Amino acid sequence: MKVTDTERLTIRHFEGEDADFIVRLLNDPSFIRHIADKQVRTREDAVSYLENGPMASYRTHGYGLNLVQLKGEGTPIGMCGLVKRHELEGPDLGYAFLPEFCGQGYAFEAAEAVLEQGMAEHALDSVLAVTLPDNTRSNRLLNTLGFSAKWSVNLYGAWNNLYEYRRSNDIP
């Protein structure tokens, strides 16, 4: 199911057929360093990750992490979406991109579209985001998107910056 399009990207729900991409993305050293080692090493691990993570979230919450593809050619380049973690009060923005697609504005483009679509469709007033303090790219991206730093939160054994994006009062 397509979530939204941007000028250069198509953002859609994950499917089981995306397992090979998930193995590649989740084993990238940058993903492991800045997000977590999800222990997804095989195609079977990836199918389980998709079924018990993003696909379960679509059924439970109506949103989750989505596949981000280059529009037209369909090349998968990353993931971006809203996530509902038990540890946080509200949904948070999650994203990760293969290193060869970083620094080209794709994360900003995808995150902006996901925020707009997700907040409108799910009547959200705010969205959270967490990132490690030394993840300068993610911290900069969240500031550029309009997130405000709130405080630090211990999540999965590490202290993270907690950000909040609030719907502007002039948006209906």
Automatic annotation (TrEMBL):
Protein name: GNAT family N-acetyltransferase
Gene3D superfamilies reported for this sequence: 3.40.630.30
Top-level taxon: Bacteria
Span of domain N-acetyltransferase: 9-170
PROSITE patterns linked: GNAT (PS51186)
Species name: Halomonas saccharevitans
Membrane-spanning parts: none
